[in-house]
Amino acid sequence: MSTYSGTDGRGPDGTVPCRSDADGAVLLGREHEKRLVETLLTDLAHQGRVLHLRGAAGTGKSALIRYAAACAEHRGIRVLSATWAPSERSLPHSALHGLLRPELARTDSLPAAERAVLDSAFGGGPTAPEPADLAAAALKLLVTAPGPVLLCIDDLDRLDTVSRGVLSAMASLRAASRVSMIVTERAASASLSAPDLLTATLDDLPDAPARALLARAGRTTGYTEAQLVLTLAGGNPLALTELSLGSGPLGDAAGFGMLSATPRLAESYAEDLRELSEPARTVLLVAALSASPVARDILDAGGLLLGSGHDARAGLAEAVARGLVTEDGETTGECRRLVFPQPLVRPAVLYLEPASRRMAAHAVLGRSLTSAPHAAWHTARCTAGPDEELAQRLEALADGPCSGTDLLVALAALEGAARLSPDPERQANRLLRAAELAVDRGLVDHSLRQGRQIDTAALGALGRALQLWVHDLIPGNTVVGRERIAELCEAARAVSGQDPVLAQKLLYAAARRCWWQQTGREERRTVREAFESLRSGPSDVLDLSVMALTDPLSVLRPPEPHPLPGLREEDEANLIAQVAHLTNDLDRAAPLYVKAEAALRADGRYGRLPQAVVPRAMGQIWLGSRWDAVHALTEEGRVVAEQTGQPEWVARATGARAVVLALEGDHEQALVCAAEVEEHSLRTGLNRQLHLASLARALTASGTGRYAEAYARLRALFAEPAGPYAYEDFWAVVFLAEAAFPAGETEDARSVVKHLASLTDSGRPPLVERMLAYAEAVIAPDEEAESRYLRALGPGVETWPLLHGMTLFGYGAWLRRRRQVTASRTPLATAESVFRALGARSRADQAASELRATGRAASVRSAGEGADSVGDDVAQVLSPQQLTITRLAARGLSNRAIAEQLRLSPRTVASHLYQIFPKLGVASRAGLAARFGAEAE
User: Model confidence over 26-40: pLDDT tens digits?
Assistant: First the structure.
């Protein structure tokens, strides 16, 4: 089915929009068909026409019929409808009688000949009238009432044969009348012809309307489930509104990577299946149920079920003749494969067949399939008791790649293997594997269901450890109190001898909690002590992650990780990138995140995707030459995290966006995002995000000239004297140093920078080295500043465009203050260019103001400034610096705010304004605003 959306009123093309029969919604993705309906109804004012719609089951033919009927009624057009009913298909004239029933009371007004024809058809006359005569009489009846008429005929090819012939004749005869017809059917009809016939074939929906319809249906609960439905539905509107993963165990359809059918979806194919012979129904059931498409296996199983190989081959031939299945033309002989042209037929067949027949089909498929894992799947579906050997064979189905719909196969196989497991520990491990797989793919509810089935009471310490790991595995559970960190460490110690892999996972979970909750030294020490006591041999990437999450300064120069058995290549890349990211080695992290992200997308591992996308976006703040990519990545990370139940990553993405918005000068929106992050932190107790919110607020303050406030906010991030510093703190020191001079906090800033430098003496990533070099240059005494700026601007600084632009701007501003005006122009002009390319508008405008103060025009005007923002006469009377001060004063900035922005003293600004007022003939700031306010905005 298609769906509707919209309101009353005229559309953009001036036409009156049609209203649906339910809620006035407009069909999604059917613009061409809607235009045909509009043409049909518009032409009805003069003559009747026929609109013929063709399409497979579920493509929305009935929805278009309802839409057309609603549009016609909205215009005051009479609407008569007819559709097929299975019980009336063998009754001649039944559909035609249903169509004309509202009009039959006026048969007395017809001439005797037409009245006799209708009486003969509907009154049980001795002879059936000819279709042409009955069509003419029906049209005569319709035109006896004034006004146009729309006939809506749904599923013409399924109506009784006589009615179908009469309606086809009416389509040919109604041209001279004001009777129009809209007719739908699944297959093209050779008998339907009419002058000026309008035709359309309803194909599957394109991606954008399909996503909109899926969202409107509201049956899916998360991003991964939505992606599965989009893949399996293939754009079929009915499937998009009906398919879902559900909350219970996966059904038979999961064995071939499909979701179970709903009653409505199955019913759309029911009539096609009821018409089959018993052998054809049986072979079709076996083919629909089979996890293997090999035709020989399916025929063998069908022969066992029917008791005759000949009947199985005849049944298959019938199903092929009806187009329900096809034989793969690329292979011949015993290796040929059976394919369903309409994949949705398979779950429909399974729904319509009783459980007893499905179980019988599973049994024969288990004996017939040559693939051992596939045979195990079918045997397991009809096995009730425990069977370890069968469980092992079944579990093998989950060993391969689980991309796309293969995820359903793997989850169903693990569920079945756990059900068959006689040993509680093996059962728990299989359920844990299913839960981990579900979390990996973003199926949070499914992972919870698997985790709840683990019998912890029968497993002692291992059961408690498994319970803790599953709980920590579920996204959003990091909000549990900090006491959970000690529990995880104790559980790791308890099971380290029995299950060292689980012990390592538990320590990683504890370290991750330390990072998200930004715990104190006591909790971090607890994790490190447990880690050191259980550690043996060289460090693998999970060990390095534990160290980076609890003490990033200890892995500023991490060793090459030892291979971790069973770890996927993309997972290893993601963990190495995490370690690099946590230590601010963004240059190393970036390509690893790109690699991990590509693999996660390809495998459909949407539960892990935000953990690569959001950190990559944050790295691009410094590494990117344009911030468009940052916005795209943070938005995608936010959406996927939200729909996979990961609120901490939603807040992380929002915090990263807040920082970028503040850097771009969109201060209002930056503060909105910062408030969202703070609300999340207050609600969950995860303080990690507050660093980003504080950074965004500080950047907003400095961007609006409030340097003292900015400095205070940034300084609060360095309250803990011994670290470990989050990587955002290294970012903060850059902006702290920038705000120190106008805020009058240079000495304090020097102490912070010196302390931070001492903590990283053992080795610094390249970006941290340049960040500290910049900070030392900005707050250096004048006699040291130039050499420090030149060091900060050394080869390679272009790798980090934002830092490059900031360093150039700081150096240019310092040169101008030192009266080296000519030398300052090049770094200031380059800084402006870098900032504009990034999208840092407020910083580019600030660089442009400094550049104008040197007597050189900026390369690009500030946003909102006209080409002739100041007349030639004014430019001649004011110096470049006075012109800049005039603009800022006209915008309402105080002397102190102007001084902070231009790095002057408030007394110097007041002196300049004292000279500016008489030169311009004004007596106050209000006069400046009246003359220059519009240009200064």
Answer: 688 999 999 999 999
Token look-up 């995490």 returns 578
Largest CA distance in the chain: 118
Residue type, 177: S
Quickly tell me which residue has 């060990």 as its tokens.
543
Report pTM: 0.79
332 pLDDT above the threshold of 60: no
DSSP track, 22-48: SS-PPPSS-HHHHHHHHHHHHHTTT--
Rg (CA), the chain: 37
Distance CA 78, CA 70 (A): 10
Here the tokens at position 886 are 């005039």
Neighbours of 799 (CB within 10 A): 15
Residue pLDDT, tens place only, 583-630: 899 999 999 999 999 999 988 899 999 999 999 999 999 999 899 999
Cα(741)–Cα(737) distance, integer angstroms: 8
For 626-633, the CB contacts below 8 A with 24+ separation are 626/837, 626/838, 626/839, 627/660, 627/663, 627/664, 627/838, 627/839, 627/840, 628/839, 630/656, 630/657, 630/660, 631/657, 631/660
Burial bucket for residue 647 (CB in 10 Å: 0-12, 13-18, 19+): middle
- φ and ψ at residue 275, rounded to 5 degrees: -80, -5
Q: Are 476 and 438 in contact (CB under 8 A)?
A: no
Residue type, 589: A
Strand 198-202 with 326-327, pairing: unpaired
Least confident of 301-310, 361-370, 446-455, 900-909: 900-909
110 by DSSP, 3-state: which? coil
CA-to-CA dists, residue 888 to 352, 891, 898, 933, angstroms:
76, 5, 7, 9
Other beta carbons within 10 angstroms of residue 88's beta carbon come to 16
Residues sharing a CB contact under 8 Å with residue 328, sequence separation 6 or more, in sequence order = 293, 336, 337, 338, 339
Tokens of 510: 């504890």
Neighbour-count burial of 896, counting CB atoms closer than 10 A to its CB (0-12 exposed, 13-18 middle, 19+ buried): middle
Q: Which two tokens stand for residue 171?
A: 């389509």
Question: How far apart are alpha carbons 315 and 288 in whole angstroms?
Answer: 14
- In whole angstroms, give the CA distance from residue 894 to residue 910: 10
Torsion sign (Cα): 69, 73, 77, 79? positive
Q: Which of 421, 424, 378, 419 is nearest to 397 (CA)?
A: 378
Query: Which run of H or E residues covers position 712?
Result: helix 707-715
Nearest to 710 by CA among 901, 922, 435: 901
Nearest Cα to Cα of residue 486 among 525, 430, 438: 525
The H-or-E segment that residue 183 falls in is: strand 179-185
CB atoms within 10 A of CB 560: 10
Place of tokens 């439905």: 229
CB 641 within 8 A of CB 651: no
Q: In this structure, what are the phi and psi dihedrals at residue 80, rounded to the nearest 5 degrees?
A: -120, 135
Asked if 229 and 347 count as a contact pair (C-beta separation under 8 A), the reply is: no
3-state secondary structure (DSSP) of residue 332: coil
Q: Find the length of the chain.
A: 937
* C-alpha to C-alpha distance for 590 and 510, rounded to whole angstroms: 26
Nearest in space to 439 (alpha carbons), one of 466, 474, 411:
474
Mean of the per-residue pLDDT values of the chain: 86
The full 3-state SS of 606-655, as one line of letters, equals: CCCCHHHHHHHHHHHHHHCCCCHHHHHHHHHHHHHHHHCCCHHHHHHHHH
- What tens digit of pLDDT does each residue of 824-841 get? 999 999 999 999 999 998
* Number of other residues whose CB lies within 10 A of the CB of residue 562: 12
Q: Check: CB of residue 887 under 8 Å from CB of residue 936.
A: yes
The secondary structure element, H or E, covering residue 338 is strand 338-339
Q: Which amino acid is at 337?
A: R
